[in-house]
Design a protein that fits this description.
This protein is of the alpha+beta class. It is built from ten helices and eight strands. It has an eight-stranded antiparallel β-barrel, surrounded by five helices. Helix 6 crosses helix 9 and helix 8 packs antiparallel against helix 10.
Length: about 280
């Protein structure tokens, strides 16, 4: 199973994100699979790395693959000095997902503007919403973010999910959730573009601030990168009774912790790429 690395990056204030990404794409030893701008933390983790995950002002999310066997770091040394903070997860991604990724990604983005909403969101907007914590429900904060993002970006959004399962049944419950998710999200144009099993760290280390990293037993188990035609389509799904039924039946019992980050990929953004 091919290995890729997920990087959340904070760049030096003088660094232009577009220029950094362009240089990264030009590296002969690196394949940039996903490149997006972090926009909003939808779910904060309760156990694993809330700081820095939810508190750090990330500038860039990239999923990278090393293309030359002699290389160990997908980020060239010339760019390393431009990074002030980094969060890395190593994941194994099925080879078929990677080989089909570009065509599937293009198709999803091309079809995005033709996918209708179901009307579930309108009902929530009129009747009110509630704070959902990790329950993945429509909250006032999420609605405010939706309205703000919609002013400048009406195109696709990409959701990064970091998943930590209850043991021993969490992974199986989440698999059942995933199977039920396909038709529920599909009617809103939602689709998981990539799913990968997290490679646990080999040993505990200390980061640049001296904080102890997590052990293998207390670490993320899986990542997924999910496409939606727009932020309104994502919220329309959360507002749907069909989604909440599978959320309550499978997802909530599966997860011990999770992190959900909304981002916009640079190739579909309406505005010039710059630091937020």
């Amino acid at each position: 199973m091919p290995v890729a690395t997920l990087h959340l990056l904070t760049l030096a204030k003088s660094t232009d994100v577009q220029s950094f990404l362009q240089q990264l794409r030009q590296s002969p030893s690196t394949r940039v699979i996903v490149a997006s701008r972090p926009r909003h933390v939808v779910i904060h983790p309760n156990i694993l790395d809330n700081d820095p995950l939810a508190s750090n002002p990330w500038d860039l999310l990239v999923l990278l693959q090393i293309t030359q066997p002699n290389e160990q770091d997908p980020i060239p040394s010339a760019l390393r000095g431009l990074i002030t903070n980094e969060y890395i997860i190593t994941t194994g991604v099925p080879s078929k997902l990677l080989s089909d990724y570009q065509a599937r990604d293009s198709r999803l983005k091309n079809d995005a503007s033709s996918i209708p909403l179901t009307g579930s969101l309108d009902k929530v907007v009129h009747e009110g919403s509630k704070e959902g914590s990790q329950n993945l429900e429509i909250s006032p904060k999420l609605l405010r973010f939706m309205d703000e993002l919609w002013k400048t970006h009406k195109g696709p959004v990409t959701m990064l999910n970091l998943l930590h399962f209850h043991h021993p049944d969490g992974k199986n419950n989440y698999y059942q959730y995933g199977q039920a998710f396909i038709p529920v999200a599909g009617k809103r144009g939602g689709s998981a573009k990539l799913v990968g099993n997290v490679v646990p760290p080999a040993s505990e280390k200390r980061d640049s601030r001296g904080s102890r990293n997590r052990s293998q037993q207390d670490w993320w188990n899986e990542i997924s990168i999910v496409h939606y035609p727009s932020i309104r389509h994502f919220c329309d799904m959360l507002a749907g009774e069909d989604y909440q039924a599978i959320n309550e039946r499978y997802r909530l019992s599966a997860l011990r912790d999770t992190f959900l980050l909304c981002s916009t990929e640079f190739d579909v953004e309406d505005l010039p790429i710059s630091k937020m």
